[in-house]
Amino acid sequence: MPLVGDVQEHQGASAPAVDKAVGAAYWKKTSGLMWTVLAIWFVAGFGIHFFATVLNPIHILGFPLGFWFAAQGSLVIFVVGLFWFAKRQNEIDEEFGVQED
Amino acid sequence: MSASTGSKDPFIASLGKIYAGYTGGFAVFVVLLAILEQMGVPDRIIGYLFVFLTIGVYAYIGIISRTAAVAEYYVAGRRVPALYNGMATGSDWMSAASFIGMAGSLYAGGYGGLAFILGWTGGYMLVAILLAPYLRKFGQYTVPDFLGARFGGNIARSIGVTVLLTASFVYVVAQIVGVGIITQRFLDVSFALAVFLGLAGILVCSMLGGMRAVTWTQVAQYIILIIAYLIPAFLMSAKITGVPLPQVMYGFALERIEGLEAGFRAAGMTPPPGVTGFHTAPFAGPNGAFSWSAAFNFFALVFCLMLGTAALPHILMRYFTTPSVREARQSVAWSLFFIFLLYFTAPAYAALAKVEIYQNIIGQPIASLPAWIQNWQIISPYGTPWVNIVDANRDGILQWGEFRIHPDVVVLATPEIAGLPYVIAGLVAAGGLAAALSTADGLLLALANALSHDVYYKMIDRNAPTKKRLIISRVLLLIVAVLAAYTAGNMGADILFLVAWAFSIAAAGLFAALVMGVWYKKTTNAAACWGMAVGYVFTFGYLIWTEFYGLSFVELFGTKEAILAAARQTAALPAASAELKAYAQGLVANAAAIQDGAMSWFGQLILTTDSVVLRGRTVARLWTLNNISGGIIGVPLSFLTIWLVSKFTTAPSQAMQDFIDDIRVPRGGVRLVDRREAVE
What we know:
By secondary structure, chain A is mainly α. Chain A contains 3 helices and 2 strands, in the order H-H-E-E-H. Chain A starts with 19 loop residues before the first helix and ends in a 6-residue tail after the last helix. Chain B is globular and about 75 Å long.
């Protein structure tokens, strides 16, 4: 069976593919997005649940709200958040012209 | 299935058709079995057909995906599209614990069990934003490859390999126990034989084709496990609430549970052991009221599971297989979506099963319980029957606290509890098997690759020819698998609690070094090595100390009251050694002479240090923290060590900074500091 060629793609790089200043600006914006998503992660993963006992007396469709957030609400935030992150990061890549060829 | 490259790859282009056909075929198979059941074919045969036919399909995929190419063997040729890699990661991730254990934990623990749901999903946010795209850009074969290239070679690589082996081995043993539980029940064989049957199913998938075979098998396994999980939940929802939408409708089941539990308490019944609060009550302590200790444990567990998820190598290595950085990011989102489908349903599954049991079983005469209870009275590896009927007050009526179901069989037994046709029970068994097998495949591959690629090829024989490397890889896979099956068959449940440790160990050992390696340019080689070692040693040491030498831990960190309590617990242990008992009795006899532990100020910093009797041992709890969340101490220590040592060691070279610049941007190549680190 033949070896696959595409793995050796970038092994031999010797010059930077991206200009240093562009790279720095790109990384600054990428870091900003990282911190934003990290904040969402913290609020959905921990922040809301600090208030579980306060939220639980509120019932919606039979669900105590604090329980619902831990069982389902936070999960929805995680999933939507990740698709949004992937889209946003692609936009940043293209803005700085550092996307893959 | 010969390998080719580029977007015109006919195999990749027809994936949609292949798996749609496969799903349709599986649906027809289930319908056929349902018809056979109606025609009077015995349950046993239905169970056999489910187990053997699904394993047969996985084996077929494993065999046609065999490969002799290194890149195919280690990273599936890097041509797995984001969506399919998401499915493969889903089944790689969702283990026996998720499929057969999670709803059970929720059934038993109510709100407390939700820590697993949050922890095992939230971790993917960290994978996506902090690690996956950069590891993909780095573009080699294994996680230790990254550590070696970023942190100057073999020392960092070996520490990474050590953490990987510790975390993954206990994890894979648990999967094999899971396979054993299912085959034992549905094939009616002994547990030890069941374990080795499962082993054959695992090996046939991964041995010939490595990552390529495992990837395409895992996609197939995902499809079966998700169908098997959702169908009974939809049927139960239709049966109990009238609307087949469990994720929305189980709110009414929760209300009914609350009403029924209040009724049981009013009638003077005691709850099953371990249950204190209501099903939906957060952070309930021993008396059912809010407890700081329970809240602290909940959040600490969520934290450890999340960071552990983001540091487990068998998950991270899946993102080495996508065609691009862009697809790696998208693939994490798809992974979480596919995992979400199951986790989103688990709380509904637990609530619906609880309603069924409360309404149909509790309060019935024990002599006339339904037949399925008989089937589950086989002895578990824990030494008690899976479903344990204990007529404590000898009145012949099943009380609330007298029905004890082990969390691991709630999902497997629910179809029978709810009176669904046996074909559904067989379907669930096939799903559980798919979940356990797929995770075991991924873990075994991670273990064998660490040994063959990182230890043998990178550290022992750099000039080994491709053929020899692949042979060694397969031999090691076989050895690790047999070792894991042997451990599972002989120690079974005694090591199951170690699985929860895998997350703390991976989090404390690897997470900080991986994240800092990408995000903190000044991280030096020495700092990363120290950080990994400190996190690993402290966490693993803490776990062993509190678990096996609980009394000595309390003697150092506890107050005199805590020491006396721990000594009393130890003296009363049935299984403790005579020596330890005599020592504990000595302490109790001289209670007045006991002093506060030397470090008791530290033990009282947040909450107090105490001990509980678990698994036949006195287990110490620093700040009342269960040792399942031991990583809460190791992770910050690891970050702190890396940061501090980086301050005092020479900054990384220009070449290393160039390397980091390259892995941070999707475009272009990667300039390795040491060319010998390149793969192939």
